[in-house]
């Protein structure tokens, strides 16, 4: 009788172990299916590896060139063209007292004359050659003034020094004109030339 009771008890324990084992196997199958890993911690076994996900972003390029293209607007600066200049290079100068005025270059752009000048003050006192007092006259008797807006002339000359710049005349030279005279008048300074003027004559007009 005792043996039968012991045998039934062992059978019950075996059944319980089999049920527990079956549950563990089932859980392992579920874990493997969902995570690819069976086990816990260091005793786990991985059956699959997770591959990195690659995302590709496609950007569509606009064929209209932005708003400018859509509106048909051209961007950028429009190039400007200038008339071809004729250039004469030489040395035409005049000295009065301790002041020397030299013309060394003349540019003719469609009749507009740009005269490059160097003035040398050999005195011990400052001199001023005002741009507003610069005049010209060509051999057709046409008179010119200096363009205050486009000329580049420093005017003041320190003692024993020189200045350089250019004077643009305010009118076009006629086709018949071949030479002109440039006059600096109203010169200011303690040692300025007598009469306060220097004229450089017989300057050729390049054609």
From TrEMBL:
<feature type="compositionally biased region" description="Low complexity">
    <location>
        <begin position="70"/>
        <end position="81"/>
    </location>
</feature>
<protein>
    <submittedName>
        <fullName>Uncharacterized protein</fullName>
    </submittedName>
</protein>
<feature type="region of interest" description="Disordered">
    <location>
        <begin position="51"/>
        <end position="87"/>
    </location>
</feature>
<feature type="compositionally biased region" description="Low complexity">
    <location>
        <begin position="51"/>
        <end position="62"/>
    </location>
</feature>
């Amino acid at each position: 009788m005792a043996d039968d009771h012991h045998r039934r008890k062992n059978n019950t324990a075996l059944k319980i172990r089999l049920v527990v084992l079956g549950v563990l196997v089932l859980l392992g199958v579920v874990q493997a299916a969902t995570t690819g890993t069976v086990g816990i911690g260091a005793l786990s076994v991985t059956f699959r590896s997770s591959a990195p996900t690659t995302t590709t972003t496609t950007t569509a390029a606009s064929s209209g060139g932005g708003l400018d293209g859509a509106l048909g607007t051209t961007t950028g600066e429009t190039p400007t063209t200038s008339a071809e200049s004729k250039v004469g290079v030489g040395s035409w100068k005049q000295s009065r007292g301790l002041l020397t005025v030299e013309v060394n270059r003349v540019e003719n752009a469609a009749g507009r004359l740009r005269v490059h000048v160097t003035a040398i003050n050999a005195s011990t006192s400052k001199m001023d050659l005002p741009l507003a007092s610069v005049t010209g006259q060509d051999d057709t008797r046409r008179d010119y003034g200096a363009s205050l807006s486009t000329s580049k002339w420093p005017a003041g000359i320190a003692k024993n020094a020189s200045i350089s710049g250019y004077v643009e005349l305010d009118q076009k030279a006629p086709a018949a004109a071949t030479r002109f005279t440039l006059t600096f008048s109203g010169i200011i300074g303690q040692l300025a030339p007598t009469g306060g003027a220097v004229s450089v004559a017989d300057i050729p007009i390049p054609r």
